[in-house]
Amino acid sequence: MKRLLVVLAVLSMTAVAWAAPAERYLHVRVDDATGGQKVRINIPLSLAAQVIPAIDNGHLRDGKVEIGHFDANGVNVRQILTALKTAPDGEFVTVQEPGQNVRVAKKSGVLIIHVQDTKGEKQNVDVTVPWEVAEALTSTSAQNQLNVEAAIQALEKAGDMTLVTVTGDKQHVRIWIDSSSTAAE
Q1: Are 156 and 24 in contact (CB under 8 A)?
Q2: If you placed Cys at 166, which of 92, 131, 145, 173 could pair as Cys (CB 3.0 to 4.6 Å)?
Q3: For residue 139, how many other CB atoms are within 10 A of its CB?
Q4: Domain boundaries, the chain
Q5: First CA to last CA distance, the chain
Q6: What is the layout of strands, in order, in the sheet containing 64-66?
Q7: Which residues does residue 102 pair with via DSSP β-bridges, in sequence order?
Q8: Nearest to 152 by CA among 139, 137, 138
């Protein structure tokens, strides 16, 4: 009987461990060749979701960040996001000019922004935003705020993905989400 209880207890714990969702982490990695600095941040999204609403300083209040005098010149950003979400995949904006190329596209439910600076800093910037995160960021009723708390909650449901990369001659930045508690080198 004791063996049966031990086996049932082990099976129960295993079932609970399998059923529990893996913790998701926000990672930030910055390598600055000029100053020799390295920054590594690994924050559980559950911790960020609890801490962000507790910060009431500067432009961040109640889980929302004030983006200053944001002027969309009469453009309804939420309505555009809704239209883009239902639009087919494709490349929507391409701007090529001397020293800079910009591309905005949608692919597999993700908004992709690519900026290539061939002059000055000589950087490539890639931003990948799941639609759920973009919608969450704009879910606040105020026009000049981004809802960081809602975006973090949406990121908890996203798969493993790189959100931002900045690659340049002097600096490399990567921001990503996964279920690892450490940043891979």
Answers
A1: yes
A2: 173
A3: 16
A4: 22-178
A5: 49
A6: 56-57, 60-61, 64-66, 145-147
A7: 95, 115
A8: 137
